[in-house]
What does this fold into?
Amino acid sequence: MKLINYINIRFMLLLLVIFTLAGIGMYIKLGFDVDENIDEILTARMDKIIDNLARHPQTSFVGFSADQSIQISEVKPCESSRIFSDTVVLNLHDKRYDQCRKITALKPLNGHFYKIQITYSRFETEDMVEILFTFMIGLFVMIVALLYYLNYRLSKSVWQPFFKTINTLRSFKIGQREKVVLNNGNIQEFNQLNSVLTEMMDKIQSDFNNLKEFTENAAHEIQTPLAIIKSKLETILQEENISPDVQQQVQIAYKTVARLSKLNEGLLLLSKIENRQFVEQTDVDLCQLIRTRLEFIEDLFSLKSINLKVQLAEPVIFNMNPVLADVLISNLLNNALKHNLQNGTLSIVSSHGELIFSNSGLPLTVEPEKLFQRFSKNSASNESTGLGLAIVSEICHLYAISLQYFYADGQHSIKLGF
It folds into this structure.
């Protein structure tokens, strides 16, 4: 929900509560005033009737008035009192019951005790209340509509600089050369926000450029010494006069340096992927890429007598960086090769925008959800850096590719969904 709509809804709800409470209060007050006014009329009539009874003792007043609004009857001696109450009276003309207000008085006069009842119809006053209530509702609707319109226009005008800032931030990309400019307006708070955001984006760009520069420099500065060490160790291994014990130690050192070199390359690649340094994107046929890769490493599968079953009848084309696409497929194939069994199987199937790699292998020794984490390995083999599937996961995350793993019937399966 947009902020303007949220504010307007909260504002309308507040108005509704205020007007509802005001309407209820006004209705109660009108009812009270109407009853008070009718009670005054009834009191005046009662006083007039009692005065007439006192001045004409010889006349009998027992009975009903013509409209039955006044009823006088003689009763047994009792204490004087006056009571107001609500009642209903049958309207003989309209054949319906009318809401009325009634006063009942017990009064001793000229040696007699009289019960005097006077009723007064509330029909006219109820019409007045109804008219006022209808007017109140109409006025409420008009005021709410007017305030909603004014509030909407005002909110839209006030929040316009904010939405401009949001649109500018949406187009912001880390690594872009153009400096982001946030235009200021007449609202001080939004200008302060723009100032903070500008400083933050400048800091992000600066940190990104520094990190990118460090990554690029690290690739050369670290790989170069490692290459020199490997070269020197290879030279030592080619000498004929070294002892078997020294040769074994040098070989261990050589393998360690080679693994360290692979580890450095993997970490640098992960850093580049996370920093979105692979900008170029194009349509890549992953099925064709798999066929090409298999041509290069088919001999490696043959050494382990792995039975390849490739069913790539349906092409899987995805828009991504060609280098990362090659890394993705290479890591999946290398993972299936390293963790496969002697005389095992590897099946690669494409269907409906999915790629499934299934290879035989020992059951997992780690939790499946940790399989794609960095340095998480299913075995303690020194040949694996523990970064292959982590790189696969990061590439899939970058391009919103679904990545699933499942194990059944001795087969490890990784499914990519596009």
Observations:
- The mean pLDDT is 81.
